[in-house]
Hints:
- By secondary structure, the chain is α/β, with parallel strands linked by helices.
- The protein has 14 helices and 13 strands.
- The chain has helices at 6-15, 46-58, 65-68, 74-83, 99-113, 128-141, 155-158, 181-190, 210-213, 240-243, 282-291, 300-321, 349-358, 382-397; strands at residues 32-33, 93-95, 119-122, 146-149, 163-169, 194-198, 217-220, 235-238, 328-329, 341-345, 361-362, 364-366, 370-374.
- Strand 12 and strand 13 (370-374) form a beta hairpin.
- The radius of gyration is 22 Å and the shape is globular.
- Bound molecules: pyridoxal-5'-phosphate (PLP).
- Residues 98-100, 127, 129-130, 169, 173, 198, 200-201, 221, 234 line the site of pyridoxal-5'-phosphate (PLP).
Amino acid sequence: MSGTSLNWCYEQDAADPLGGYKTRFDIPDGLIYLDGNSLGALPVGVAERVSDVVLSEWRTGLVKSWNEADWVTLPLRVGTKIATLIGAGPNDVVMTDSTSVNLFKAAAAACHINSGRTEILSEPGNFPTDLYMMQGLTEFLGEDYTLVTAPRDKIVDAVSDNTAVLVLTHVHYVSADMYDMKAITKAAHDKGALIVWDLSHSAGAVPVDLKASEADFAVGCGYKYLNGGPGAPGFLYVAKNHQETAKQPLSGWFGHKAPFDFVDGYEPGDGIKRMQTGTPGILGASALESALDAFQGVDMAKVRAKSVALSDLFIRLVDEKLAGLGVTIASPRDSRMRGSHVSLCHTNSYAVVQALIEGGVIGDFRAPNHMRFGFTPLYIGFEDIYRAVQTLENILKKKIWRESRFNEKSAVT
Ligand SMILES: Cc1ncc(COP(=O)(O)O)c(C=O)c1O
């Protein structure tokens, strides 16, 4: 379509079956927030819930709240809520630790199941923590173990008879390239390897069916599309067939079969429980539990359809309005191969993003020269996309990004 108009966007917003869900979020007036892929917006009700946990359950209930407020089952309750968004059974997911720590535990468990094989396979340019944690794990496991990487178009060929586990991110954090989970999992299994999927950019954004894909393990973040707040706990999935054999090395007391027996010897808990480590952070967990209510009654197929429509609109407007302004599209144009964000490249991406933020449009910068824009269908509309590209066009045409204040790097980009 050429010459996409603001009126067309209004019509799309008026006809949008998810349009009403924006009221489930508390977003500052006038802000266009395209960074839900980094830190999700605040869902309505979370602040009140956390305040209630602090003032009622903690201040008044004190230690009794472990039982009376059921804090002790919070990791499993939240896991069950997340399970509905990622095609997992209700007892197959636990909310625990951070994604980094869960990567370590899941990959270590996979290496243990597949002992005899000593290679962990990933892709170069995977999110750094995925690679760093696997470097740490292989060093820890001993000198036989190695981390091998292969580009995504060669990843299947790179699975060898020595590959214990593939550790892949389903939707790439920069490019938004999305793997075919079922096909890659099958290819890994055909060669005797297990797989750990990092769903940090998938959970709550794109439909995922872990059971149908026969995935072995999966991990992901609570603070991106799940909107659990800064540093929210992560989650960990283990397929049913591995749950009673999975052995994870961070064998803390919350993963014990009977933590309150206080015995000296470690015995893993039943099923998914064993993937926990220490005492869960109840404030963060409560925020995430409450945030997940924003997904109540939401059809993930509709979320996906709108995410594709928003991303396609963004790409179309970039083509139409930013031609000749030094911007290239760094994400797949084919929506079937793309997650829920789009990256652009520009030689001065950092400064452009800072100018955008001052202009009321929040995206983010990823080194060396990417600008990322996340499309969260529950609170972003078509008009938002139009206005965001219009703001970007103005910044690029007038070279507003050249101003010195936009070129001073902050610690977090
Ligand atoms: C793919 C992926 N994995 C992991 C993380 C972060 O892990 P953690 O929550 O442990 O910092 C991110 C953060 O952006 C990510 O994009």
